[in-house]
Amino acid sequence: MGTYVEVLHNKSNKNELRRILEQSEEFILNATPFMNNLYNFVKGYSFFALLCDGEGCILSIIGDPEILLEASKLKIIIGAYMDDYSIGTRAMRQVLSKGVPVKVSGTEHSINEYHKWTCCSAPIKDDLGNIFGIINLIGFTENVNIHTLGMVVITANAIEKTIENNKYNLMLEISEKRLKDTIDSISSGILTCDLFGNITTINKQVVNMFGYDEQEMKNMMVSDLIFNFHKIIERLKEKDTFISEDMYVNTRVNKLQFTVTAHSIYSFDMKIKGITLQFCELKKGRKLAGKILSGQAVYTFDKIIGVNEKFKKLIEYAKKIADSKSTILITGESGTGKEIFAQAIHNHSKRSEGPFIAVNCGAIPRTLIESELFGYEGGAFTGAKKGGNVGKFEIAKGGTIFLDEIGEMPPDMQIRLLRVIEEEVINKIGSSKLVNIDVRIMASTNKELKHEVENGNFRKDLYYRLNVLPLQLPPLRERKEDISELVNYYMRKISQKLNKHSVHISEEYMNYLKNYDWPGNIRELENVIELIVNSEVIQRNLWNEESSDEKKSIDLYNGNSLEQMEIQHITEVINEVKGNMTLAAKILDIARSSLYRKIEKYNIAVRK
Predict the structure, then answer these.
(1) With CB atoms 3.0 to 4.6 Å apart as the test, which of 217, 262, 474, 490 could cross-link to 478 if both were Cys?
(2) Sigma-54 factor interaction domain location, by residue (predicted)?
(3) Is pTM beyond 0.90 here?
(4) For the domain that residue 43 is a member of, what is the CATH number?
């Protein structure tokens, strides 16, 4: 089914739209703060909120830019009618006819273009029960959760109460109360803080989760609760997401780890002024597995792509040694997938339900690596946390610790690590107490450790302790037959992640990719595919690193992928409306004469 939306933007209807907006001015003014509050809860997750009058005419709209762009293409703008008569939206019909909140998702919509969206709608009623407005929250189906409709209902209720009282000061009080009621009703723990970590708002659930009393928590800093809280701030400032990451929390109860999601709170000038943190219980299967500066073991052997015979034998060998207690040393050039193999080995072992803790030995300052690996007691040194700190080895108990870039480990720490491997015990800084550990140790390096041993940079005894089960990953240039599989895999993965069309790779260009040397291995291939998907053009020449230390500029040419996509889109629309050119032109948002010119230009076959 195609889409037709009645919009009050032609000349004859402009006066009518102006009349509707003027008539609804007070309603819009009272509802706007609540729309903003509702949107702030989902900001950055591809949602938009609509405020409609009782006839379904859009009065106000707010949302993330990318989904608003899609909505505008479907004429979902101020002045458009969102009722069932205009666009067939079942959510609106049920709200208007039954006067109850409703959620319509995916194919429940009668419009094909909305199948990827979920619409949560709630009526706004006067004190007599008459519907005079509707609040809607629309987003991609995969981003909607069980609380979304409840948040819309609470927002609608808040608007109703505010309009009933009709006083600005009282409106602010109700807004704060409704906001508190909202976060208190959510099963997750919620707290907000400023950029210094001062806690400003908490809900009842987070108090129960952590075991502190309410006043005590309000006097705390977030850094007292979360290790490396500054990393969250850095991620958000870089416009990166921080979604569902497992982190250790300093609680009073017998719970060490929670799944944490962080959202930015923006000021009027769109600068980050605070953070909202959401804490959820861990899934049962991952009690202690955390993404503390590393990540969970998410890769398995069935996700490792390769048809090369030697590579397949390497995978079989890795599977055989997965349950061994012996240490594994994974070597190979940068970008060959050493941590992916380590994660797959962990997930194939009996320790798969335990934690997988990855430590980049080259990224931790020399002065901190001992405390990072083994932890410390409170007061062990100047600046030490009052309650001490748990080290990575202790966190990894019952699972695997992966020591990446082991060749960068300082000599004094090499001695400590050797003792841990031999005696299976650690002791924290500032403590004489030995702690038994049950940890599988894997290490990796892109260095030739034998040469490092000969040069006196790496201990010979530690090398032999680590190299009990060696695993040498081949460079991509030795796996030419795997390149086409990897290209197709990353094309699907990256285009889906970026919400862009895949770009066709010709046989000629695929042969070029197969014959390229790939000094950056799989990581470089992934970056090249991401560049192609983003630019929607094909690279003719990759970096030529043999001729010069400076990278030559990429020679791009306009491929026919965009033209092909336009032809495909026009053909699909014409077929969808069974050759009705007037309707097809409306859907494509072009003049009918322009549509005929494109049909002639591209020689598009039209089915009658």
Answers:
(1) 474
(2) 304-534
(3) no
(4) 3.30.450.40
